Amino acid sequence: MASRARPDLVTALLAGAAMLASPAVEAYVFCCDDDGGRQVCADVLPAQCYGRAYRVLNSQGLVIREIEAPLTRDQREARRQEERQKRIEQDRIRSVRLKERALLETYRSVEDIDAIEARAIEEIDKDLTKATRFKERLLDEQSRLRQEREFYKEGDLPSELARALNDNELEIIAQESVIDSKTRMKEAIRERYASDRKAYLEILDRREALFRR
Q1: Rounded to 5 degrees, what angle do the CA atoms 9, 12, 14 make?
Q2: Where are the domains of the chain?
Q3: Average pLDDT of each block of 10 consecutive residues along the chain (213 residues)?
Q4: Distance between CA 95 and CA 195 in Å, rounded?
Q5: Beta bridge partners of 39
Q6: pTM over 0.70
Q7: 56 Cβ partners below 8 Å, 6+ apart?
Q8: Helix (H) or strand (E) holding 61
Q9: In the chain, which ranges are continuous DSSP H helix?
């Protein structure tokens, strides 16, 4: 006949198995400094630590986490401003790097910048020369038309002559606008390539400084 296990032995064996199966629970200690600068610790967050910075320690007494004190409204605003300035600075650095990469991909050397600028200025000068010569012809025509108008001081001005004078004046205004636009475009081109040249030289200087280190 099979023997029956004693109830107290079965209970002990089950309790031991349960202890082996369940993982050990890590004990934590919460510490902070009170108003007097004294350290206050407990296995739960002490009341003296409410609204303060505190530390979480493991069973070996090592700090495993530090919790900041809640920020005041002024501190929160200061932090937002600091983060905003940090983002602005990061965006500025990113923009500078993108521009530097674009410059290095666009130009092979400072001489390359000079050559491209010269070609752009040459095209503008061609348009300026053309517009200036056209305006000179219009001014000659205007002089002739005004002389012809002198014959009609005492009478009515013929409609064809009046229309020719008006068209001539409008054409002169249009060419003056073209000349002004091309002149400003030429100045903008010089400013642009001067800026590119300066930035390109700064990149080369920084690289040379790195190589010298």
Answers
A1: 110
A2: 23-67, 72-106, 107-212
A3: 43 41 69 91 91 90 90 88 94 90 92 96 96 96 93 86 95 96 96 94 87 74
A4: 15
A5: 33
A6: no
A7: 28, 29, 30, 63, 64, 65, 66, 67
A8: none
A9: 7-21, 73-106, 110-149, 159-212
